[in-house]
């Protein structure tokens, strides 16, 4: 029997939703009550059954903990899993992204606020700061979006161990082709309308999220602060794919886990109106890598809420991957038909910050 | 010896991180900066320490530390002198929503 577990990170804790049919769900939680749960990773590589959680308390600061029994017990490294080295004179504010490396079963990557990239070689128990990116000469000019200045997207190439993309707000996309040693900006073609003197800068863009195509790993999709883009060269140059969308603003983008050219966005009216177009929560689906789009809203409410950067994901169901979106008013919707229809998975939770799904065969 | 021990009182919600202790004590022969007193008190309890101070040793924004009734953040911060008979209170600030 296949079980699906959806981790729901919220402003006031973590819930786990479990289902064997993806129709009825059992909600467990909260874990870390009153902490903002910002990043989740289910890690089942090498026989693991690990859930890594990055969260922060407004009083007690950031923390990263893991459970090897799906939340019954939690482990926190005594010295802190992520600690900025003394010479940086910097304190961790939050861990916004946790990603399993596709080539090494023990490696986990983390993206933090302030903008740091971190590598763990013990499945997320301790991390080392990536100095190549930390010492990048652009660092003094990286800025902060509304959510702070963070590396929120980490995309190791699934085919080339030397290649990796990260994205940050603000700063934009950076790529490494030498195993995360050196980094170059990859923002050509991404508009930064808010820059007063150069709207097409080398870096400084407010990229919100990047997703990688399932079949063509050098094809990437970007939801920018105003603008939706596709890259065909592994994140170096970008072309607009916003034609046909109701808006070009949004926080998130997700790609189908197996089918190429297939992606979803959650449009938001604009950067000064963070509500869905026509107050109708919806996703926009493309099956041709962003050349055309269609609205999917069946089962989604009329509402004034929206969906944040990591509050959308897909599971790994072998028949039809489930699509999950969590809203800022504490609801999670699930679709098991590729977004054609949604049903309510959870309601009356705090603001949803992130969702991640695990499929257990 | 009485009078040669500074007391560090832990907020209730963090006492599990100090083995259930209500307070920790630090032997002091002479006044010392608050940072050193907290280093001594928290040495066996690094997770407790991380809740109260960041990796630079700074007291977290929404945590207040009082030395003999005076808010250290309004004084010399982690350099505030702590006497051999002082009481240090760690308190979660009244904030949040």
Give your account of this protein's structure.
The complex is a heterodimer of chains A (361) and B (97). Chain A is mainly β and 361 residues long. Chain A has one helix at residues 131-134; strands at residues 3-10, 13-19, 26-31, 36-43, 50-57, 61-67, 75-76, 94-100, 108-113, 116-120, 128-129, 150-156, 164-169, 172-176, 184-185, 207-212, 220-224, 228-231, 239-240, 249-255, 263-268, 283-286, 294-296, 312-314, 323-326, 332-335, 343-346, 352-360. In chain A, the strands form seven sheets. A four-stranded antiparallel β-sheet of chain A has the order 3-2-1-28, with no helix packed on it. Chain A has a four-stranded antiparallel β-sheet with strand order 4-5-6-7, with no helix packed on it. Chain A has a four-stranded antiparallel β-sheet with strand order 8-9-10-11. The termini of chain A are close together. Chain B has one domain (5-92): Beta-grasp domain (Ubiquitin-like (UB roll)), CATH 3.10.20.30. In chain B, the strands form two sheets. A five-stranded mixed β-sheet of chain B has the order 2-1-7-4-5, with helices on one face. The longest helix of chain B has 9 residues, at 34-42. Chain B is globular. The mean pLDDT of chain B is 93. The A-B interface holds A 34, 57-61, 63, 76, 78-80, 83-84, 86, 89-92 and B 14, 46-47, 50-52, 54-56, 58, 60, 62-63, 92-93, 95-96.
Topology of helices and strands:
The complex is a heterodimer of chains A (361) and B (97).
Chain A: E1 3-10, E2 13-19, E3 26-31, E4 36-43, E5 50-57, E6 61-67, E7 75-76, E8 94-100, E9 108-113, E10 116-120, E11 128-129, H1 131-134, E12 150-156, E13 164-169, E14 172-176, E15 184-185, E16 207-212, E17 220-224, E18 228-231, E19 239-240, E20 249-255, E21 263-268, E22 283-286, E23 294-296, E24 312-314, E25 323-326, E26 332-335, E27 343-346, E28 352-360
Chain B: E1 5-9, E2 23-27, E3 32-33, H1 34-42, H2 46-52, E4 63-67, E5 70-71, E6 81-82, E7 87-92
Parallel strand pairs in B: 1-7
Antiparallel strand pairs in B: 1-2, 3-6, 4-5, 4-7
């Amino acid at each position: 029997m296949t079980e699906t577990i959806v981790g729901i990170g919220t402003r006031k804790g973590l819930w786990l939703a479990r289902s064997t049919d993806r129709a009825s769900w059992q909600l467990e939680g909260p874990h870390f009550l009153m902490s903002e749960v910002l990043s989740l990773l289910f890690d089942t590589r090498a026989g693991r059954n690990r859930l890594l959680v990055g969260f922060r308390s407004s009083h007690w600061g950031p923390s990263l903990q893991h459970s090897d029994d799906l939340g019954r017990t939690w482990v926190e490294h005594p010295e802190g899993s992520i600690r900025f080295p003394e010479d940086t004179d910097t304190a961790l504010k939050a861990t916004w992204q946790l990603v399993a490396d596709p080539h090494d079963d023990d490696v986990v990557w983390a993206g933090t606020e302030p903008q740091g990239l971190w590598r763990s070689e013990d499945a997320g128990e301790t991390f080392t700061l990536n100095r190549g990116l930390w010492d990048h000469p652009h660092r003094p000019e990286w800025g902060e979006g509304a959510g702070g200045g963070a590396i929120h997207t980490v995309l190791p190439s699934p085919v080339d161990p030397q290649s990796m993309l990260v994205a940050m707000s603000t700063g934009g996309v950076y790529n490494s082709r030498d195993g995360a040693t050196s980094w170059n900006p990859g923002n050509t073609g991404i508009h930064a309308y808010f820059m007063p003197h150069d709207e097409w800068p080398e870096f400084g863009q407010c990229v919100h999220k990047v997703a990688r195509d399932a079949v063509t790993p050098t094809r990437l999709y970007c939801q920018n602060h105003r603008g939706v883009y596709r890259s065909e060269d592994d994140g170096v140059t970008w072309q607009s794919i916003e034609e046909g969308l109701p808006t070009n603003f949004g926080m998130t983008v997700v790609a189908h886990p197996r089918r190429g050219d297939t992606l979803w966005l959650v449009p938001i009216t604009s950067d000064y109106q963070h509500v869905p177009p026509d107050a109708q929560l919806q996703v926009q689906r493309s099956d041709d890598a962003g050349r055309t789009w269609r609205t999917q809203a069946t089962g989604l409410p009329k509402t004034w809420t929206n969906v944040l950067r990591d509050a959308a994901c897909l599971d790994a169901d072998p028949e039809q991957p489930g699509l999950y979106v969590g809203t800022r008013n504490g609801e999670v919707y699930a679709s098991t038909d590729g977004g054609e229809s949604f049903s309510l998975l959870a309601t009356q939770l705090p603001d949803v910050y992130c969702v991640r799904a695990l499929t257990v065969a | 010896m009485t009078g040669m021990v500074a007391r560090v009182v832990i907020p209730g919600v963090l006492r599990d991180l100090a083995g259930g202790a209500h307070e920790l004590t630090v032997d002091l022969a002479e006044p010392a900066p608050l940072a050193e007193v907290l280093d001594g008190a928290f040495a066996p309890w690094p997770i407790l320490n991380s809740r109260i101070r960041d990796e630079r040793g700074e007291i977290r924004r929404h945590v207040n530390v009082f030395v003999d009734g005076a808010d250290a953040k309004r004084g010399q911060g982690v350099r505030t002198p702590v006497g051999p008979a002082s009481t240090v209170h760690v308190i979660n600030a009244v904030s949040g929503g």
